[in-house]
Amino acid sequence: METTLHSLYLGFSVALAPANAWYAFLGCLVGTLVGVLPGIGPLAGISILLPITFGLNATQAIIMLAGIYYGSQYGGSTTSILMRIPGEASSVMTCIDGYAMAKKGRAGAALCIAAVGSWIGGSFGVLVLTVVAPPLATIAIRFGPPEYTALLILGLIFLAYMSSSSLIRTLLMACLGLLLGMIGIDNMTGHFRYSFDLAELGDGIGIVPVAVGLFGLGEILSTPSADAVKEIITPRLRDLLPTRKEWSESSMPIARGTLLGFIIGIIPGSAHIISSFLSYALEKRVSKHPEQFGKGAIAGVAGPETANNAASTGAFVPLLALGIPTSPITAVLIGALMIHGVSVGPTLVNDHPDVFWGFVASMYVGNLMLLALNLPLVSVFVTVLRIPYAYLYPLIIMFCIIGVYEVNNSIVDVWIMLIMGVVGYALRKFDFDPAPLVLGLVISPILEQSLRQSLIMSNGNYLIFFSRPISAGLMAVSIGLLVLAAYAFMLKRADWRTKLAEAEAGEAEL
Amino acid sequence: MTIRADHVAGVFFIGFGLLVIALSGDLPTGNLSLPGSGFMPKIVACLTIFFGLVLALRARESKPFATLSWADAKHAVLVVAITSAAIALFERLGFLTTNVLMIFALLAVIERRRLLPATIYSVGVAGVTYVLFVYVLKTPLEAGPLGF
Q: Which residues of B are less than 8 Å from A191 in CB distance?
């Protein structure tokens, strides 16, 4: 514990250095804008703005990008409450009761509770991260190829199981991502695979062009400007404070959302999205007045908003301790650190303590900055929503092009982004969620290498995954999840995941 | 029989899996004790075919293909066409000229905005971004024949 406190002191000395604090502030500000603007989610936002961090050192870059990530979670609630448009997917549930509250003239209170809940959820997440990540990293050093293989397989199956779209659709997207990740030189044999004599494809397809194409350009292609006009409710500053009754009704949802969000956050998948849906369902289940949900229940804002921020922070635990991305967003963050020459994994805490602890401490600072930013400046952020979409999307396309080109100075990457934009458009038409594709792309090289190394180690005996305690445990959980999914499928029973999907599609009853 | 969205998607993924296997012909599969470079792609391609098949077989749960809305397709095609032209010109004309032209084209052709506001906006936005990246963030952007 003493070591942790000492390390945290080091972290705060890094995070509070004027330059680093400035980049944390900038990240939070830009992240809030990214969250406020409909159509640019945190993934596209981080990918597009990645080149801005090229001139910074690794610590400043990760501090700024993480600020964009959790800032967008805060900002997403603004459009949900004021316009009934989720700024990003995890804010979908906030639309229901947040907008209903805004219609009743309680927009300010909803925004305040969302901001306070987000701060508590985010801060609790960082606190647990501080305590849990270093010992977990010590254990992870003992992981060999079979353990990594089992962990990544579990990650994919968990993602498919937890996904609100169907298991088959999620697995298909993950397979597509895995196949894309195999383009380029095979690390173990040196063979060129599917590179069609293009030297640029020798290093494989990058995360950034795929993520920006699927989530940034794909969204623009699906959204003609005529469809993007909405009424905006502007809250008055004096109405921002919730009443005593509203505070009291929010306290337990915030507490439950914090715990639920953090736990879901450390599980692979689009955790921040799933956590907000589950939190809403939980609050409705435990409420004494479930009939008020959908009509402006403050618990329907407090729970989901807290949960998605706690989950965003929870997602950093496997990232920092194991070097394994549990979501496409953390995958892009790993890519960003790699660009700066920092390898993420169990050794990060020892090899780059300034990056690790500076980053952790910056999240404490960043969460406070967001609280200070979001409440007084809400009317400023709302003004951004008044920019006509017709003028906004050309700007986003320009940033997509810069963002992708600047990573490798490769025009081939920009063409890949365009192709992935068209793919993203088609996937939306056929109700596929592109997020597992990006995750598959990121874990593909690690999964392939660890699988092949495991088989070589065991002379072709695949029982190696069941003969070592950690990998056997992870494989057992994977098999358990598959059995559960098959059981629900055979009984044709609508379990909580089906209800979640229905809610996501039409905000139906949970 | 009504053709449904998942029939089309399933057939696409089956075809894609078969294409990957065909393209993997010259990659050695190896064996379990020494997997080759074609080992993993072929496994994943087979899984893609299997899942594609399951998707097509369960297609009755999806919407009829004919009911999919393509109202946004014209917008999408135009955006793709203008962006493609911009990407093709990017390394020849440089960041500034290409983006001024691209933003202007998106506003004038797709959004039917008046030429003067479209011109002012495209020059202003691309110019400010150029200054921000090159002079403030010290991140060089692709230069054209005129040096910017």
A: 27-28, 36-37
Of A391, A425, A459, the CB nearest to B76: A425
What is the pTM for the complete model shown? 0.79
As separate numbers, helices (DSSP H) first and strands (DSSP E) second, chain A gives 24, 2
Burial of B59 by CB count in 10 Å (0-12 exposed, 13-18 middle, 19+ buried)? Answer: buried
Residue-wise pLDDT for A200-257, tens only, equals: 888 889 888 888 888 788 888 987 876 655 566 666 666 677 888 889 999 999 999 9
Chain-centroid distance, C-alpha A294 = 26
ipTM confidence score? 0.95
B91 inside 8 A of chain A by CB: yes
**Residue B64 bridge partners (DSSP):** B4
Helix (H, G, I), strand (E, B) or coil at B35: strand
Chain B contact probe: residue of A153, A156, A173, A401 with most B CBs at under 10 A: A401
User: Which of B51, B80, B126 is the closest to A171 by Cβ?
Assistant: B51
pLDDT at A331: 77
| pLDDT of amino acid A229 | 53
Q: Residue A192: helix, strand or coil by DSSP?
A: strand
What are residue A287's phi and psi, to 5 degrees? -70, 145
